[in-house]
Amino acid sequence: MTSDPIDPLGAGGGRLAELRRRLRAHPYVVDALLAAGTLLCVLAAAGTEPHGPDGHPTFRDPYLDLTTVVLAAVSCASLVARRPAALIVLCVTSVVTVAGLVLDHPDAAGPGASRAPLAAAAVVALYTVSNRTDRATSWRVGAITVGTLTASAMLFGEGPWYAQENLAIFAWTALAAAAGEAVRGRRAFVDAIRERAERAERTREEEARRRVAEERMRIARELHDVVAHHIALVNVQAGVASHVMDQRPDQAKQALAHVREASRHALDELQATVGLLRQSGDPAAPTEPAPGLELLAELVAGFEQAGLRVDVELPPRGTPLPSAIDLTAYRVVQEALTNVQKHVGAGARVAVRITRDPAALRIGVVDDGAGAAVRGAEDVDAGRGERDGAEHRGGGHGLTGMRERAAALNGRCDAEPVEGGGFAVRVLLPLRATVPEPAPGPVPATGSGAVGVPAPEDVADSEGVRTPGGGERRA
After folding, report:
1. How far does Cα 390 stand from its chain's mean position?
2. pTM greater than 0.70 (yes/no)
3. Lowest mean pLDDT, pick from 45-49, 174-178, 290-294
4. What pairs with residue 354 in β-bridges?
5. N or C terminus of the chain: which is more exposed, having fewer CB within 10 Å?
6. In what order do the strands lie in the sheet with 349-356?
7. Inter-residue contact 109 to 163 (CB < 8 Å)
């Protein structure tokens, strides 16, 4: 047998919360009840003799004269408007209290022996002013009210200046001002905490949205690089197969095999990239590392099979690159070669130079613009013009993606036509916080006859010698 959960407040707590909610919804009803309660307290205190014959307080009806009742009714009735006009209500209650003290009967045994209880309404009004105004106003108004009422009681009261009624007026008015200031300060503190919490929540939400947008942009760049590269290869090889299908079926068969291989690689990389979007508990999450310059030889081999002539110069082996820089360098070379394949065509010659120093990694991909193995001269010129136009307009997702990748690592990417024909992409990726800006300049021509493209026999480094066809033989 199960038991219901126990409400720590019980049924009474629920009814009390409901009562508070209704009272907050009707503030004038609350103020009217407060005014009625204050009136009863004033009349009861005014009609009570604090020191009776037996030493105990004694209620004596003759002490309640008509003047005391009228003054008490006027003072307490004004409390109904204490929320919208707190200062006016305080002035009314203070004036009524001072008037009652001034009109106090000099004979203590007669009617109206003491009208000091009239200050109760002024105490409530002073609390309201301190609770609903700023600190400076609260202190000024509180000091004036306490001083005025206390001085009036000491000067015009029935007893000596040190009588307990006079000291009571001073204590209650000062306590009301202090209590109102304390409640106002606590409410302001709670509001400040709530505002900071809401601002922090908004900041967290904005940060989460920003990170989601950055992650989407990164995945979009990855998808573009993967799909554009492989689809470009598939397109070229399919064109070759269609062109030589009748005259050279063996070559067409080889081109179709390249199509199948490129499409398989595209599907694998696409699956790995999209797999990043899976939830943590989903099966078959990608476990392969991100591509880097270690896989550059396979990348170049794929383009060479598509008809490009690629010469690669790599830096000496040393300290491994940071993963982000390694991936960016790979993607930049991949995108640049893909652009050459799409806009220039098979037969173009491309020089890929990657140099490294303690400050930065520099990447240069330059083609001679002379690809015409598959497409005609008009197609080559049109493709080159399309790429140049995209550069001048700032468009083209490939160049934009390379610039975004470089900017994400505080680097830079420059893409521009080469004098005499061809196109150059130069990327600088800093390995430190600050990197000196390289002096821009065209890639010098070499003895190969192609502008800006070094001959294979001219490219060498301290550890290896380049061989024709883009291969590298390490010493």
Report:
1. 34
2. no
3. 45-49
4. 363
5. N
6. 309-313, 349-356, 360-367, 423-430, 412-417
7. no
